[in-house]
Design a protein that fits this description.
Blueprint lengths: L4 H14 L1 H14 L2 H22 L6 H16 L1 H31 L1
Helix pairs in contact: 2-5, 3-4
C-alpha cells in the first residue's frame, strides 16, 4: 500500500467535513449556540441521554420517571425549530457515517 492508513483516515476526516450534510449540521449548531433557550435544552438533553446510556450499559432498566423525563425532553426538542432541524440534519449525516462504518469494519468482520 503506497499510502499510509493514517493518511487515508485523515483524508476521510477532511472529506466528511466537506459533505453538504456535515456543513448543514455545522450551520444549525452555530444557530443553536446563539440561542440560549435551544442551547440549554440541547445541553440538558445530551446530558440526560448520556446518563441514560450509562444506566443501560450498567444493566439498569429505565423506570417510569426516566421514561417520563424522556418524553418531556422529546416534547421540548420537537417544540424548538432549531433543535428539530439540528436532529434532522444529524440524521441525514448519520446515513453517510453508517455506510462508512460498514465499509471500514468489513475487513474485521471477515476475520470473524
Amino acid at each position: 500500500m503506497s499510502q499510509n492508513i493514517y493518511d487515508l483516515a485523515n483524508e476521510l476526516d477532511r472529506a466528511i467535513r466537506q459533505l453538504p450534510e456535515y456543513k448543514a449540521v455545522e450551520v444549525v449548531k452555530v444557530s443553536i449556540e446563539g440561542n440560549p433557550e435551544a442551547k440549554t435544552i440541547l445541553e440538558q438533553y445530551l446530558a440526560f441521554q448520556s446518563d441514560l446510556q450509562q444506566q443501560l450499559q450498567a444493566g439498569q432498566i429505565p423506570n417510569d420517571d426516566v421514561q417520563e423525563k424522556m418524553k418531556e425532553f422529546n416534547r421540548h426538542v420537537q417544540a424548538n425549530l432549531l433543535l428539530t432541524e439540528y436532529f434532522s440534519k444529524q440524521q441525514q449525516l448519520s446515513i453517510y457515517i453508517s455506510d462508512l462504518e460498514k465499509i471500514i469494519f468489513k475487513p474485521l468482520q471477515d476475520l470473524f
